[in-house]
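Question (not urgent): is this output format expected?
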Amino acid sequence: MATSTVEQFFSAADRAAVEAAVREVEQGTAGEIVPYAVSACDDYEVARVRAALLASLACALLAAVVHAVGGFWGAYLDLWIAVPPIAGAALGYLAAALLPGLRRALVPDEILEKRVAQRAATAFLEQEVFATRDRTGILIFLALFERRVVVLGDSGIAARVAQHEWDDIVAGIVAGIRAGTPGKALAEGIRACAVLLARPGMERRRDDTDELPDYLRLEER
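Got this back:
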């Protein structure tokens, strides 16, 4: 079976380390951590279209300059008025399709943020992070293409840990994504959660059970 794009970012050892980190944190706190990673939150067709338009315009301008300087196209002027823009559009579209960095650069930050937030919210519901006895579920969501991380705590967590307090953990995981080591960064980020969860009211109950599976969820979208 072919390996999916997102699975290429996480080796078997990475996945085992993430799962072990989740178990380690949950043994000492009431938190129920759900690690979740997607290759990308959208196909971002807008980026390929933008690349095509920009490359088409650039080629058209270049062709016009060449002709103005030396009358290069001669008798084939009508043909070459059309060919450079069309060729440029095709090359631009292909470049954006093949180069993730270019594609990401052509998507406005607000669109990236919106898509990641929407997909994280969907994952929260899809994995039923809310379905714990004390509402102590925590989603740690990684969007690899977008290089963004979202931490969403259920009401029992949000009452004790402010959203901005997750920022250092998020920054560390994002740095790992950029460095090409998301698995290691995620495991370290999960262990760092123990500090924030070691607060009054977050103690593990004697009859506590593992309410949400500990494994790393991997999805293409």
